[in-house]
Structure formats: C-alpha cells, structure tokens
Amino acid sequence: MTGHGPSTHSSDPDHAPSPDVVVIGAGPAGCLAAISARRSGARVTLLERAHFPREKVCGCCIAPRGVAVLADAGLGHVLTGAARLSSVRLASRRTWARIERDSGVALSRGAFDALLVRAALERGVQVMHGTSATIGTDGQVRASCDGASWTLRPAACVVADGLSGRSLDEHPGVSWRVSRTSRIGLGAILPPGSIDLGRGEVLMRVETGGYVGAVHLEDGRIDVAAAIDHEVLRSNGPARAMLGWLGDSVRNRSAIEAARWTGTPWLTRQRTSLALPGILVAGDAAGYVEPFTGEGMSWALASGHAAGCLAATMVQDPGCWVAWPAVWRDMLKHDRWRCRLVAQLLRSPRSVHAALVLARWWPTLAARLARTIGRPRPSTMPGQEPTP
Ligand SMILES: Cc1cc2nc3c(=O)[nH]c(=O)nc-3n(C[C@H](O)[C@H](O)[C@H](O)COP(=O)(O)OP(=O)(O)OC[C@H]3O[C@@H](n4cnc5c(N)ncnc54)[C@H](O)[C@@H]3O)c2cc1C
C-alpha cells in the first residue's frame, strides 16, 4: 500500500473524536462498507490488522456479479488492470471440458485489496493499518497498534474480519457453526509458466478429497487455490497434494515444491447471529460456503455495500440494526444454497467425471453446467458497455 500504516492515526487517538462508523477488516467487504457509509455522509474509520499489500488464499476471480457491484459503487476503475476471464476448463481424472463464458476478471488480492483501500482513503475514510480491533460487550471498539491501545465509541460498527476474525469473541451469542464436512482452503502464487494454462482461462480440477483452481493474474503469475479435506492435506502435505491434483498440467514441478503454501480455517460455516445493537456482520465474517463457484468476493462486496449503507442510517436511527439479518438473507440466501449444492455434488468425482464425459459430447449440457457453477449477470466491464 502507498505508505498508509500507523502513520494514518490521528496523533492522539485517545482524544480524537470517535467516528460515526467503525469498520473492522479491510478486505472487499470492509472496504465496500467503509466507502458506502462514507458516501452516505458518515465519518468512517477502517481498522485493518495487516499491513498492505498482502496476499491471501483466494482464487482471485471476481465474478460478473462482483464486477457489477463495483461498477454500481463507482469503483469499476479498480479493475482496469485485471485479467479478463473468458473460459473455464473443468477437469476430473483424465477427462475435461471447456466452457466458454464470461467468468469475470482475475486480480491478485495484493493489488485488489490495496486498490480498494486507496479508493476508501480518496473518499475520506480514515484508514489504520497494522491495527487490530475487538468489540466489547459494552459495544465499544478497542483498537491496538504497536503496543498502543485506545477505545472508539461509534454509533455503528461493521464487522468484516473474515473467516479468521476474532473481533466478536467476547460476544457469546455470535459464535460459529462450522459444517461437519467442511474443508480447508490452501493456496499459493506460482511463477509464470508453472502450469499449462491459457490466458483468460480458469482451470478447475476436481479430485478425491477436494478441488483446485488456477488462473493467470494480471502480471502473468499463476494463482492456485484449493479446497481440501484435512486428512488429504495432513497425509500428503500441500506441495505433494497439489502436484497430484494438477497432474499433467504441471510445467514446473520445483516451483510447486518451493511455493509458500498457506492454509485457512475451516471453510463452510455460519454465524449464529448476524447483528447486535450497534453491530452488523458482513462478508465471510457472516458465513461462508466452499469456494468452487468463485463468488465469495462478490458476496463480500454486495454485503459490505449494504452493511455500510445501513450502518450510516444507524447514526440517526440506532434501532435499525434489527433489519440486518433479513437484508443479508434476502441478498445471499439463494446463491449460498446453489453454491452449497454444487459443493455437495463435487464430493463425488465419479459423478463429475461422468458429467464431463457427457458435456464433451453434448454441448448444451455444458452450457447448463456453466450456469450452475456461477450465474453470470449483466455486468459493466472496464471499457465495455453494460450488456442488456
Ligand atoms: C481456496 C479459496 C479460493 C477462493 N476463491 C475465490 C474466488 O476465486 N473468487 C471469489 O470471489 N472468492 C473466492 N474465495 C473467497 C474469498 O477469498 C472471500 O470470500 C473474501 O476474501 C471475503 O472477503 P471479506 O472482506 O469478507 O474477508 P477477508 O478478505 O478475509 O478480509 C478480512 C480482513 O480483516 C482483517 N482482520 C481480521 N481480524 C481483524 C481484526 N481483529 N482487526 C482488524 N482487522 C482484522 C484481515 O487482516 C483481513 O484483511 C476463495 C476462498 C478460498 C479459501
């Protein structure tokens, strides 16, 4: 990021006026929440534990819906340098099928999240990097950075601290329900040419114990992200598991062995409560479903935008936090169920193999499959008119 570390603190945080809205976490959900609340007139502080730019385990594909949310929020420009995705190669065992479809764009999380933070700064959001936050049962936000800590008393707080977020740990009613069959995420960024992959192509391979996706990033590097059974990862280790799954697509074995593989917590989960007086939970922090359809960031952007608008309303009307769970469910319920269903079908590589064999000979089935694994929406792409 362009030098916005702790130096963006007010010189004396203890005596600075509390903002109207505090957002915890500067991923896609938190950035959109901060920008939307600011646009609605609130004074907003965005607290982020990490120092940017930072990479993250993610497939890095921003689906057409996410592209559309960004365009609607006046943020389409952040995707200017992104790589456009026009096909998906779905493979299992020795069979594969290519599906031509608008699959959105790919952008590294290092670049995407930093660009969103820059947009927030440009719109007047106070951003504090390297700052970890928790919310007490009294609703006050305790922030800490480099050994200093201080308290904020906002009218509204948006929690967007992702899958590993712990800022609500003190609230017993807001725990996680993790699916018994949940997998964990695994990812790395590989040097250009490490995998046999076309430009603009998303490679998805479904194997026993999970699936892996690969895509070219904006600078030619290759992002690899997988959802994997814990047992498979434990017995093989990340590099061996990925070499096995990527199979004959591997062009540079030693790059995969030398890569810095990073894991995530359990993926499929749901918060037991999405709102409390003064607090709204958005993005992955509200709940997540396995990533096969590549929509997590789109959901995070959409829910962050809605949470930011509601948080700004809470400044004048504190009671309206009660609306949030219904707003969140109306926005995402159907997409999450579709995604859950797809994740369940993928548990059987034999069925996927059979579907692929059929799809190669029956292209209309492939088109139907394409609709199932991600519902394309009309989108405004950089340099492209919205499709009717
Ligand atoms: C293997 C895998 C592949 C995926 N592939 C895709 C894909 O191709 N397309 C897609 O759209 N989605 C994909 N996703 C999902 C996507 O990564 C997430 O849905 C998305 O990052 C959610 O955004 P968020 O803003 O809710 O949370 P995050 O992006 O996780 O951001 C949370 C932020 O909060 C910060 N934070 C945490 N705790 C605190 C604290 N206490 N105080 C301050 N800051 C804190 C963190 O540092 C982080 O920056 C994938 C996920 C996985 C695991």
Q: Which CATH first-tier class of the largest domain would you pick?
A: Alpha Beta
What is the helix fraction of residues, given as a range? Answer: 25-40%
Could you name the ranges where pLDDT drops below 50 across 5 or more consecutive residues? 1-12, 376-388
The tally of structural domains comes to 2
**Bound small-molecule species:** flavin-adenine dinucleotide
Count of helical regions? 10
The helix/strand class is alpha+beta
Known CATH architecture of the largest domain: 3-Layer(bba) Sandwich
Give me the CATH superfamily of the largest domain. FAD/NAD(P)-binding domain
- Counting DSSP E segments of at least 2 residues, the number of strands comes to 22
Q: Give the strand order, joined by hyphens, for the main sheet.
A: 6-5-15-16-17-14-18
The residue-averaged pLDDT reads 89
Q: How many angstroms separate the termini? A: 37 Å
